[in-house]
Structure formats: C-alpha cells, structure tokens
Amino acid sequence: MTPEKQMAASPTISRSVTETVNGSHKFVIKGYSLAKGIGVGKHIASDTFTVGGFQWAIYFYPDGKNPEDNSAYVSVFIALASEGTDVRALFELTLVDQSGKGKHKVHSHFDRSLESGPYTLKYRGSMWGYKRFFRRTALETSDYLKDDCLKINCTVGVVVSVVDSPRLHHIQVPESDFGMHFGVLLDEQEGSDIVFDVAGEKFHAHKLVLAARSPIFHTQFFDGLDGESNEIIVSDMEPAVFKAILHFIYRDTLVDDDMLATPNLPESSISDTLVAKLLAAADRYSLGRLQLLCEAHLCREISVNSVASTLALADRCHAIELKAACLKFVAENLSAVMRSSGFEYLKNHCPSLQSELLKIIAGCDEECSSGGNNRSVWAELSDGEDSNGRRVRPRTDTG
C-alpha cells in the first residue's frame, strides 16, 4: 500500500437545506369608517415586524391603491420595510371572519407549488399584495367587519439556504429547572430562617437566597442591623406585591398573567395595578430583571388613555426603557394624548417630563427657537393659546 493511500482520510458529507423562516403578525384596524376617504393610494401601515432578519409591514389602503378602480376595492399589501436585495419569500394574507364561522378570506403561497418559485423583493419598499383585495361595498356588509374593526393576519416565509453537517450523536438538553426547585424550597419553607410580616400576613424565606438575588437584602442581612433578626415587619407594601417579589426571587419569573390583569380598573389608574406596584418594589430592592419584566408588561398596555400615568410611573420608578417607550408614544400620538385626562396631570405635576417630551417633539433646541410661527403645540397651550390661536382660560387650583 502506497503512503498516499495510507494517509487518505474518511469521506465527509454535508448537505444544503433550503427552507423558509416563518413569522406572523396580526394587524387590527379600528375605526374603519373613519379611515375611509383618506384618498386613493394612501395607506394605513402596521407596526414593523421582523422575519428572517428583515423587517416587514402590512399596508392597508381603505380607498384602494389603484386610481382606475375609483375606490371600489380595498387593497392590502406586504412591504419590505428594511434594506434588502433579492429577498425571496412566501406570503399569506388572511382577512379574519369575526362571526366565529371560520370562513376567513385567505390568499396563501404556502403548501402549493409556484411556477416561478418564491417572490423576489429587490429593495426597501418592494411590495406584494392585491390591489383588488375585496370589493368595498361587500366588505362593509360582511362578517369581516365587526364593531367598525377589521383584523388582518399576515405570515411571511423568508427563503434561506443553510449547509447542514449531520452529527453522529445528538443529546437533547432540557430547559433549566433551576426555578422549579427553588420554587419548591419557597413553597415548603424547609430551612427558612427569616419571616416577613406584611400587613399581618406571614412569609417564610431564606436569607441566603434573598441576599444572593438582591443587594438591598444582602446589605440588610449581612451589613445592617437586621442580620440577627428572625422577623421583619414590612409596613408599606401589600401582601400580594411581596408575594410576587418572592415568586420572582425564587423562580425568576413574573406571577401568572391572570394575577397581573385588572380588567375593571380605569386605564388612568395604572399606579393602582399589581404590576405597577411590583415595578416600584423591584426598584426598591434593586431587582433589575424583575423591573424589566414589569416594564415589558406595562409597555404592551400603553394606550392614549394610559400613557400619561404610565409615563409618570416610569419616571418615578427609574424605569428607563418604559419611560422611553412612553415618550415616543406621546410624541407620535400627541394630539390624541393631549385630549386625555391623564395629560392634565402630566402638565401640572411632572414639569421635567414636559421638558423631555418637548425635546423629542422638537428634535433639538435649535429647531424649537428657529421659526417664529412654528411654535409647538405644547408651547401654545403653555402660554394660554390652543393650536388654532384661540385663547385658553388658565387653570386655577384652589385649596
């Protein structure tokens, strides 16, 4: 046998796999009747969503995209909202039947062969969709429109090719069960060495666990005067909030959503919700991850009526991410927010937030002072005039 043959290595194998990376987005259009009449070719856009490393958006044209149709149809398109060249994708658009009968209007490229393959979008703004998605007169008498609301579901499948090198062995590693075991430790109270009295309700815990998770508890137990104490009275917190704090410390998760939900509470009373009180407690005990979990939960609930009180809460609890989201929402929806009850509270009690919001709206200080007639809406209200030049009676507070 020659040396060359002796040195020959075993053959290797690889394979190229072409598949789609799929993602979906639900777009709810409220106030359909108010959107009509914006003009042919003008659209209402969904928020952007990411699939396959690219951003996408749904465009809904209440008066149609095609001038030749004389607003007889509504149009729906999916647009590439980020930079991309030759992005190949499959699409599905679904107009949801809101009667519960399940007779959705579906246009789909999935699970069917296409003569020329997936669609290719060559640049930002490229779109795929239907100019004549639905005849408008039929739509307005159909089960797709309910309470002046339309619901559109969109699925995008971005085509990707990867090289796969099969491995001889594969071992599936389960998700971490760390939180489950520590949760049992909390529930069974075994080895507990500290008791918290919260409004008369007793909570048993473990100093080492609390100290490992919170620098405040570490200082309290090992650097402060409470190190030898077996019971601590917490007088300024509700039992449900402290229970949620312990739930996070031991399990590293928020309590269940149904505990955080407050369906009967006015949107302006955000500070009275459990998640808001939990956010304040997270700030108090320096639980950064819990704070972000609460911020993310509150961010999903931001609306015109709730954003002012949420912004004030975020500022008070040093919730940086939530505060930034609220400021952006107010700047983008200023006219509607200004008519809400929470906006008056913001003006009267949070002057520092006014300044931050004004900078976002104006863009920079130079723009604020450059134009004599281009005064911001906030400035007009502040000196007693509304945006139409009418005098506004100053607000007076008594008592």
UniProtKB/TrEMBL annotation:
GO terms for biological process: cellular response to salt stress; protein ubiquitination. InterPro entries: BACK_BPM_SPOP, BPM1-6, BPM_C, BTB/POZ_dom, MATH/TRAF_dom, SKP1/BTB/POZ_sf, TRAF-like. Signal peptide: none annotated. Pathway: Protein modification; protein ubiquitination. Residues 379-399 are annotated as: Disordered. Residues 192-258 form the BTB domain. It holds the Pfam family BTB. It comes from the Eukaryota. SMART domains: BTB, MATH. Residues 22-156 form the MATH domain. May act as a substrate-specific adapter of an E3 ubiquitin-protein ligase complex (CUL3-RBX1-BTB) which mediates the ubiquitination and subsequent proteasomal degradation of target proteins. Belongs to the Tdpoz family. This is BTB domain-containing protein.
